[in-house]
Design a protein that fits this description.
This protein is largely without helices or strands and 152 residues long. The protein has one domain: Pectate Lyase C-like (3 Solenoid), CATH 2.160.20. 9% of the residues lie in helices and 0% in strands. It contains two helices and no strands. It has helices at residues 5-12, 132-136.
Amino acid sequence: MEFTRQQLYDLLNRPSPLWLSRADLSDAYLDGAILTGANLSRAILQGASLVAADLTQANLLSANLSKATATWASFYGATLQGANLHQADLSGANLENANLFEANLYGANLEDANLVGADLRSAKMQNAKVTDDQLAQAASLEGATLPDGSTG
């Protein structure tokens, strides 16, 4: 499902929560968008710009956010289980209490991201830019592949 700019504008200005499951939002400009509680499960957000977007409590189950830019975005309590965040820029993002179980964070930029209480079990984080101090704040790293290739 692809959207024109007008259709996307119309959708983003409707009462929430939005239902955009399986939507193709590749390369979409969603900076500052309020997507609180939105259902974006299996959505394609590859290369999308989500700078300072609010995705609090959003459902991004198995969504594709590879190479997306989500600097300073809020994913507080969001479900990102099985999501593809390969080479995504999440610097400064709030991922507090987010479910990132089995997420692909290979090469993602997590500099200054808030990982307090994040579930990173079985996440793939090889070559991700993230500090040990940030990882220590996560709820769980069980079975995760850490940036240096070791297992949590």
